[in-house]
Write a structure and sequence with these properties.
The protein has 15 helices and 24 strands. It is an alpha+beta fold. The protein folds into 2 domains: 235 residues, ATPase, nucleotide binding domain (Nucleotidyltransferase, domain 5, 2-Layer Sandwich); 206 residues, Nucleotidyltransferase, domain 5, CATH 3.30.420. α10 runs antiparallel to α12 and α12 packs across α13.
Length: 474
Amino acid sequence: MKGPYYLAVDQGGHGTRALVFDEGGVVVARALVPVGGAPGGRVVEQDAETVVESVRTAITWALAAEPRLADGIVAAGLATQRSSLVCWDTRTGGALTPVIGWQDRRAAELMPRYQDHAFAVRERTGLVLSPHYGALKMRWCLEQIPAVRAAARGGYLAMGPLASFLAYRLVEPRRLRADPANASRTLLWNRHTRSWDHELLALFDIPEQVLPDCTPSRYPFGALVTKELSVPLAILTGDQSAALFAEGAPRPDTVYLNMGTGAFLQRPVGHALPDNDTLLWSTALLDGHESVQVAEGTVHGAGAALDWAAAHLGYAGLADQCGRLLGETGPRPLFVNAVGGLGSPYWRADIESRFEGEGSTQDKAAAVFESIVFLIMENLLAISTASGPFTTILATGGLTACDALCQALADLAHTAVRRPLEREGTARGLAYLVAGGPRSWPRTGGDVFPPQPREGMAARFAAWRTLMPPAMRA
């Protein structure tokens, strides 16, 4: 088939998606391969070899209906969850660890060693000191996993973001590469020099030779090779970084919300850190022609909180009942949503999720849904305080399928929420970047949720905000 077409591979916590877009940003083929893993708690990991195979399988399934489509694919992009980590053997490419998920908190035990350096870490990286990010995970692996220590002694260890591992396994020729969006999530990438920071490497005792080389976001990474095709991998980036570009060049008057396993809020800003020490400064795109930085808020327990509720409440199919649960009124408990640890603006990895108040299983399920809305609202307020008012919330990701969730956000934020027709924001943003950022990239239409009065939920949000500081002291 003629093309040009662009392949977007989005490797996420619940599965791997492969979508093929035409030059107008329209999906012409798609596939999803589920990937199992630990649903929550301190340990969040996936089998690394399964993840590699899921990428190959997703591409195979996407092209199965129309094999000739492969002939028109001119380039590809790959996005992963940014703070997920793998250690591997450079001789064979084989994984030495599982994929240690971004929500994994086993490295929290190391935090006291580095707490006195939190300010320096933030100034150099734009991030807070947290066990969710790569450096602490790397240090933990070096201390706890014998195969990793042996590989370090033998000189055949590589450690880095999941994106770097997948590129090493799937791209020819094999090279150790890390793009800015993923490298910056290691706590080792200096946002000023745009390279590994030698003082931070020394602080965390990470040998630079085990890390991938730093590259731009757009780079000739090599050929992504499967049995169906061999195409240039033009973009390597993070899932949230790609989602920012789903509708084309990002606008500074918009907050971009992507809701999947976690919920991530981004607003384009300059190079300066946000005027709020609870938000992150993140690199979304960096190449020789363009640089996009954002102020970012992070909610760890979005889709992951629904998984938690299914496991702890026995309440299956929670996402399908979103509208009914959020539409209910009356007294019910409040939920301290610390699934995966509390992200911004609290940044606590040692808090356990719990309910405050009594209620039925259904009441508790509704409280879990509300907590996702409330945590997102906390971050919207922080972004507004740090960078001024915004006019629109652009919402993408799987959880936006719930109309009631989008409406609740609009009501509490007093701001319209726009939900594009194509909800796979990461994949569509990847396609835009792979295509070179065309000015003609169209919006996909979709739905707009204008704000409406919501006194009952506003009162519960106020009560939840009052609850949170004491909950963190408990």
